[in-house]
């Protein structure tokens, strides 16, 4: 292997911060406070000269907090210039400040993007950081003693915009697919039906997937739920584990009410040496991929996550390793579907002794908005340093499996590979990969989705149709509304619709996937009813 040149990017520091509401030293930290605390921890973790490390930082890339991700004003206020507010709290003033778009893929995407910029000589040191005070916001939103998180720090800012236009349109919003549990439940229900499993068996499968996650969370001092659960406990619907959107009991969905921050510090090898960062702190990005899939309704198969499989396969190919060589995983786990997508695509089993999280996963560690995978990267880097070698794979998911970013990390030196798997193979050897005709991979090996594979979509649906997937919301009194994806018999167009009251009630007793229905447009909403 060729020696890594001085511009090769390395992770030199990682940091995490928390401010749980029930802690004895609860500090009322805002999202900017949490991001800054994590950033300071990453600078300290580099173990170089703190002054030289801080001075070297020429970019701060902020992971967009939820307070800046939607049209609603945050209940406690927020920072008008989030990255600069974080910089001020850390005590740095880099020339460039970036605020990334929404999406759980954004932490890994930022690591890949700025690693490439460092390799090209565009910058020397980049601090990627973010925080969420979602627990505090929920607790104090309607109270008179709520803290004021408004911050008016100014300075130059590159705001990339929220970017919701890719993930949501009027059709999805009208039919309640702004609700992540509802959207992912449609994917998991399609998978359940494709496997021929009944709802109880599928809940059990989700429990078996997530039980090992709870064991990891139980040993993580930052986790929101530090308790191990059996698969049966996760799968069984009880008053304290009620059904939310079928097939998800409460314990199996992402827990967003947390106060967490995490940061990753990237430097070129030359900058790290100049700042006195010891070589044993360096961790390299051996493989990476950013993949964009077709919108949910246009995908040939609802039950598969081709973007996730393509991203993982491409990153493994670039790293020159196979999936059996990976020593640690963290697969984005807001719900079961994104984890199952990778396991199905790569032939992995839920009882793999390596497990598929280093944090405990979003339902148990916590799901701090767009920033969860920053914690996954931080834990991965720490585990690899402790082991003195190996490969850690982080999979980060955005939208409804719309965008998936992967990084493969190792302490072993590796020249930067900017996106060409063929070059990576020449450096490190062959690796198997899986390809999909529907996903688009970033970099020189990009593939454009095949237009012939797109399913047509009917915004206003009329006529006889068949249910391809569905989910039902359960309130305190039981099932109260349902959403379905169907296809019109007339031309095969996909559509979204609400289930009628009759179909919602029927879903408790009978399988709806494959059932014929009649759909009618009722204003902007489509409604499906049983065939009379």
Amount of helix: 25-40%
| Overall 3D shape | globular
Rg, rounded, reads 23 Å
Could you say which structural class the secondary elements and strand pairing correspond to?
alpha/beta
Taking the alpha carbons of the first and last residues, their distance comes to 69 Å
Short description:
Helices cover 31% and strands 22% of the residues.
Which short descriptors sum up this protein?
532 residues; alpha/beta; 6-stranded mixed β-sheet; 5-stranded mixed β-sheet; 16 helices; 18 strands; 31% helix; 22% strand
Give an account of the 3D structure.
The protein has 532 residues and is an alpha/beta fold. Helices cover 31% and strands 22% of the residues. It is built from 16 helices and 18 strands. Strands 1-8-4-2-3-5 form a 6-stranded mixed sheet, sandwiched between helices. Strands 10-11-12-9-13 form a 5-stranded mixed sheet, with helices on both faces. A 5-stranded mixed beta barrel has the order 14-15-16-18-17. β15 and β16 (494-499) form a beta hairpin. α1 packs across α3. The longest helix has 20 residues, at 199-218. The chain is globular and about 75 Å long.
């Amino acid at each position: 292997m060729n020696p890594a040149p001085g511009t090769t990017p390395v992770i030199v520091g990682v940091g995490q911060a928390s401010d749980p509401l029930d802690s004895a030293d609860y500090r009322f930290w805002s999202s900017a406070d949490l991001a800054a605390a994590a950033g300071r921890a990453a600078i300290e973790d580099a173990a170089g000269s703190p002054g030289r490390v801080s001075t070297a930082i020429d970019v701060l890339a902020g992971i967009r907090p939820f307070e800046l991700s939607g049209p609603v004003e945050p209940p406690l206020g927020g920072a008008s210039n989030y990255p600069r507010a974080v910089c001020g709290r850390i005590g740095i003033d880099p020339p460039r400040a970036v605020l990334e778009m929404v999406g759980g893929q954004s932490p890994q995407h930022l690591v890949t993007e700025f690693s490439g910029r460092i390799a090209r000589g565009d910058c020397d040191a980049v601090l990627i950081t973010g925080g969420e005070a979602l627990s505090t916001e929920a607790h104090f939103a309607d109270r008179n003693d709520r803290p004021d998180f408004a911050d008016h720090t100014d300075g130059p800012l590159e705001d990339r915009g929220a970017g919701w236009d890719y993930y949501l349109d009027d059709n999805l919003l009208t039919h309640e697919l702004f609700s992540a549990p509802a959207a992912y439940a449609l994917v998991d229900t399609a998978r359940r039906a494709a496997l021929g499993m009944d709802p109880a068996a599928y809940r059990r499968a989700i429990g078996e997937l997530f039980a090992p996650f709870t064991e990891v969370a139980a040993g993580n001092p930052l986790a929101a739920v530090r308790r191990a659960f059996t698969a049966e406990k996760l799968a069984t619907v009880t008053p304290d584990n009620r059904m939310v959107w079928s097939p998800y009991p409460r314990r199996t969905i992402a827990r967003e009410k947390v106060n967490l921050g995490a940061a990753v510090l990237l430097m070129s090898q030359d900058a790290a040496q100049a700042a006195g960062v010891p070589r044993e702190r360096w961790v390299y990005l051996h493989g990476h991929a950013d993949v964009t899939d077709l919108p949910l309704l246009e995908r040939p198969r609802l039950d598969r996550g081709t973007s996730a499989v393509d991203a993982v396969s491409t990153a493994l190919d670039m790293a020159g390793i196979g999936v059996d060589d990976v020593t640690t995983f963290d697969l984005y786990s807001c719900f079961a579907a994104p984890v199952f997508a990778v396991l199905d695509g790569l032939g992995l089993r839920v009882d793999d002794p390596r497990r598929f999280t280093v944090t405990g996963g979003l339902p148990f560690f916590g799901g701090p908005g767009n920033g969860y995978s920053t914690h996954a990267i931080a834990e991965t880097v720490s585990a690899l340093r402790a082991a003195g070698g190996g490969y850690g794979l982080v999979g980060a998911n955005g939208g409804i499996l719309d965008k998936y970013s992967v990084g493969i990390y190792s302490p072993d030196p590796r020249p930067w590979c900017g996106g060409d798997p063929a070059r990576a193979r020449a450096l490190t050897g062959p690796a198997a990969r899986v390809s999909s005709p529907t996903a688009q991979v970033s970099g020189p090996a990009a593939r454009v989705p095949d237009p012939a594979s797109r399913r047509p979509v009917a915004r206003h649906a009329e006529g006889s149709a068949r249910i391809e997937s569905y989910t039902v919301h359960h309130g305190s009194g039981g099932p109260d509304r349902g959403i379905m994806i169907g296809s019109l018999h007339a031309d095969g167009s996909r559509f979204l619709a609400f289930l009628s009251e009759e179909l919602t009630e029927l879903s408790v007793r009978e399988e709806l996937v494959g059932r014929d229905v009649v759909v009618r447009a009722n204003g902007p909403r489509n409604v499906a009813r049983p065939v009379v």
